[in-house]
Amino acid sequence: MDFNLDETQQEIRGLAAEVLAREAAQERLEAFEKSDAPYDAVTWKALAQAGLLGIVLPEDAGGAGLGPVELAVILREVGVRVAPVPVYASLALAAVPIGAHGTAEQRALLNPLTEGGTVLTGAYREVGPAGEIATTARREGDGYVLNGVKTFVPYAREAARILIPARVEGEGVGVFLVEPSAAIITGQPSATSEPLSRVALDDAGVGADALLGGTADGAAWDTLRRSAVAGAVAIASGVIEGALELTKEYTRTREQFDRALAQFQAVTMQISDVYIAKRALDVAVWAGVWRLAQGAADAEEILTIAAYNACDPVMKALYTCQHLHGGIGLDITYPLHRYFAWGKHCGHLLGGGEDRLDALGALVAQEA
Q1: What is the CA radius of gyration of the chain?
Q2: Are 69 and 290 in contact (CB under 8 A)?
Q3: Which CATH number belongs to the domain containing residue 340 in this structure?
Q4: Secondary structure (3-state) at 96
Q5: Whole-model pTM?
Q6: Cβ contacts of residue 69 below 8 Å, gap of 6+?
Q7: Which of 105, 204, 234, 332 is in the most buried spot, having the most CB atoms within 10 Å?
Q8: How many Cβ atoms are within 10 Å of 114's Cβ, its own excluded?
Q9: Could you report the per-residue pLDDT of 99-117, keeping only the tens digit for each?
């Protein structure tokens, strides 16, 4: 069996790497961080012009109609460059479920996305374990009334629509396309420059056409949460890749006692630990998104393993990278701090290591 990316996927990776290497260079990132902008609009437009924002959009929305593996390829390159663009929010949290379950009118919301003309997002997290839904929706007249609180919602204020999963009385979990003006949005602390928000729904009214696909059978929510996890672990895979490359270069060129740091056995062993953590995550990420693309029953279990690796071993590996850099690793004028912050950010979105172990245990118990 060949586990390498196919020719199309390699071309997507090369194109994404080329665009992001040019647009998310160190000096550009420093300038962006001083701007107080929610995201780098120039890089966002460059990704759109390269056709990368349309990779996973359905063909009737001007996209290429590709799947989870191709999305992971793009998001991993975003992580490698820690590029401040709403690709995860717009594609993994919104475009994927809309493309898979939306009506023709709902999929039309994706058309401006191919040109970078809009931002979309979704609410994966609530207070409590990742993936649980307490938000409710009740029918009222020709529409629905939503109540509940979502947390860690990226780009909530900037988005044209927020995908809100909610339990519909007498039915199942549905996903609603909600305009930001219908919710109470409060900023939350973020480890990165990416804006996160608490989104409160207090008797928020929406029309019947806001229900994704017109049904609340849980299918759209399953797609959203699996895509949310797959996207976050793909970014984390890129983050640890970028941090490892930076650390390898530092230990290769930094000298102590007239010897490069990389020549000390203790340093070599610690770099090896970082590499092992990275490879373990990589294996789980690619296996998970491939199984997700195949519609395999074990896709969620593998993605949960990837999420645990992103939250625990990879975070410990990022601490090691900080340690090997010494004091400069904490300097915000040196790029390593971005990788550490992005790693923490992904861990928060995924729910943390212990939460992911609990989720994995529950999945294994279901199979017993």
Answers
A1: 20
A2: yes
A3: 1.20.140.10
A4: helix
A5: 0.96
A6: 5, 9, 286, 289, 290, 293
A7: 234
A8: 20
A9: 999 999 999 999 999 999 9
